[in-house]
Every structure is written in structure tokens, then in C-alpha cells.
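If you are new to this repository, start here. Below is one unmodified record pulled from the training split, so you can see the exact layout before writing a loader.
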Amino acid sequence: MSPLPQKRPVAADPFSPDSEELRPTRAALERAQHLPAHYYTAPEILEREKELLFFKDWLAVARVEEFANPGDYRAMEIVGEPIVVCRDQKGNLNAFANVCRHRGVAVAMGAGNATQFSCPYHAWSYGLDGRLTAPSRPRGLGSFDYRDCRLPPLRVDTWGGFVFVSFDPGGPSLSSYLAADGYQDAVAYVHPEKMTLVDTYSYEIDCNWKLVPENLADVYHVEVIHRGTFGAATYSTKRAIAQLTLTKYGWHKEYVSGTMAPDAELLFGPAPWLAQHEKGSLFAFSAFLRPNFYLFARADMVQPWVAYPLSATRTRVTGWTCIPAEFADRPAFKEKVAILAEFARRFAGEDADLMRAIQKGLTSRYFVRGPMHELEVMIHHRINRYLEAMAGEGEAR
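And here is the target side for that same chain:
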């Protein structure tokens, strides 16, 4: 007999750890169940996530190589907010809300190099420091003092060669934010700051954003879905969590896996600082940083992925492939980079198909919250830290 549709329990505070609905997810791993379906479908859940996660945490948005020269800029949308990141003539990295102070139109589009930003509606112009330099027909603005007008600034900083922004003007520094969970120390030996960006892959998918970091942490599926790419003989499921360290907000682990290339081939050889590592060409490492930054490292690369919600059921996923800067002088550089880029799209496509299928199942009236497997320890840990943040418990994320 088919199971009957289940009604959602009603609680005075649905985010309380003592709520009937969340108690099965808050349980110890061996007794735990996955989150209720509406956590992946409800717009009101996403709105709470924006306020308690995305608008409080530091968010990875780009690589520093994308802003190598004065005037380099990139416009983007982060959780519904249009922003622009640029490097000014003094070499400073700046970030602003990409919202004209007159009628709100975006003043920057796409990416490129500019000496200023100009609103396409009424031609209000802004310097690379965000200050309004010249509104059109200023005499017609009455008593408005445009000399004190500027694009709303966002906090911006870098770590490991990645650009981070924060919407929270009163939050911790990026250094303090990373140190709170030991992230800097855990990742230091793979040296992402010594890497250079060779490929960026971004795509949109019909699923909730949380499915992306959960899937990336899912050891259980690798030898099933990725058998034809990186989940073959070079990947050890049993050893994938053997060196797992759970931290307050996330985790990091070293394990055995081939690199992210066909047949696990090190196309350029190992990174110099990992050449003598005991795991050799099968060195693998990953570390999760709240709320959505998942860094993977192999013997020859780092490849982080981020997921940003476009709606409760649609997500933009971005991955950066970075290799040691000195590899740029190796033979057949462009051809080998093209191989890495194609491979990233292959295994990302495998995951995308699965995440779409999960999202589809979550909308079924017959969906049942399944039990968590022991190999889903990272997912269990992540979800419980997430629920603490959603309940407003201190600084948990």
C-alpha cells in the first residue's frame, strides 16, 4: 500500500530545536532523518536564510585574478542583490551595491575594464571608488548635494586568492571569520593563494541551493553517480571520511582520490608543495566554509564550488579551477586546461541531473524523510549547524 501524504507538524516556533518537526533531524546520526521537504521549497525559508546566513556571513564571489588591473570590474547578483566588484586606480579592491542613487538602475553590466560607471538611464556617473562624480543636468536637482552621494559600499577582502564580500557592516573581519572555525590553518598547506585561475564554470539549476553543498558532502553517492568520471578505482569511500575533522561550523578532511581529470591523470604534474606528500598523486582534501563555500584540493589543483539561491527552487552554481601559477609555462598549456574544463562540466552535469531529481521528489505528496546513512555524517553535521543558525542560536551558521 502506498504511504499516505504526511501533514506538516505545526509548532509555536517551527525553528526551535525542540519542535516536533525538527526533532528527528536534530537526533544523533544513527537515529537522524533528513530535513522536511518544505525546507527546500518554501520561499519563506529562503527569506529567513537570507537574513540569518547570507546577509551576515562572508561570501566568496570571485578570484583576485579577475581584477588584475586598475579598472577591472565584474557585476553580479548575490541572493537577489546586484553588486559590482572593481579595482580602482590606486589598486584598491572595492565592492558596492550596483544600484544608482537616482532611480536604482544598475550602473555596471557584465565584466570588463572601465574608468567609471555610468547609469544607462540618466547618465549619472560614478568613480571606481563608488562616489557620484557627475549627475546629468545637476542644476535641475534643486538642493540635492551630489558631492556626498555614493553607491552603497560593501565590505570586501581576500583570502587564498578568493574575493569575499559581506553585506554586514558590523560583522567580524574576514580574518576573524575564517579563524573562528580554524579554516585558514586547515587549508594552509594546499596553498590556494599560489594557484592561478584557469577556468570558471557557472550554471543554473532547478533545485534548492542547500542541495548543492549537501551533494558535495555526500560520500555515499560518489561510486554510483561518478563511476565514469572520478569515482572509479581511485576513490575510496571507506577512507573518504577516515580523516574527517568536524569543526564548530563545518569540517575538513584529507582522503584518497584521483585528480579531477580523465583517468585521474596529473596533466601538469603535482603542485611543488605537494610533490612529496605521502598520498602522492591520490592526495585529496576538502574543507567547507559556511554558508556555501566548498573547497576541493587535489595533488595538482584547487577547485572550490559555491551555490547562490535565485529562488527557493532555483540556484546558480559556480566552480573555479585553479592550478599552480608555474604550470602556465608547461607545454600544451591551453590544450590541457581545455581538458580540465571539459571534465569539470562532465562531473558537474552528473551532479546536476541528480539534484534536479532530488528536487522533483521533494515536491511529491508521497515524499518521506529518509534516514541518514553513516556516510552522510558531514550532511548531518552541516544541517544541524544550519538549523542552529535558523533558530537564531548565537553565531552558529
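Two things worth knowing about this chain: The helical segments are 23-26, 43-54, 174-179, 183-187, 211-216, 222-225, 333-362, 377-390. The mean pLDDT is 90.
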